Amino acid sequence: MTAPRRTQQERREDTQRRLVDATISCLIELGYTRLTTTEVCRSSGMSQGAIFKHFPTKFDLVAAAVVRLYEQLVDDYRLAVSDLPPGPEKIRGCLEALMALYETPRLMAVFDLHTAARTDPDLHAVMQVVEKPHRENIFELACDIFPEESQNPLFVGGIDLLIMA
Which of 45, 52, 77, 153 has the fewest CB atoms below 10 angstroms from its CB? Predict the structure, then answer.
């Protein structure tokens, strides 16, 4: 028996996912300054036409990759702290998981993007757009991890300070 034929929407989503995953791989391996659509094509096995059909500009592709990178980082952190017991050791475990996350290639790629965005106005604009939803995801995760503290008026500021540090 043959598998059912995929819909156009499923094929489109698969192509976009492959392009975004290849962009993330290139960001990790090459860094932002060496990221090119040619490298993304090589990594994904797709054509320039496929990239620009789904992502009109390189910055649209980078924005999609950053959004996915942020989702992956939040998912990684959620998994790392999911089994922590309640109590004072939970805070220690959360901080240790955060420090471990800061050493991952994914987060190094995000830092590279932020550094490049300092002097690249187009990338700066991309990062500005994707930052707000990411921060909201972090605050939501923090509230899930520490529901008993989430109503404290200092909680959001404390999480923000921790992220900025």
Answer: 153
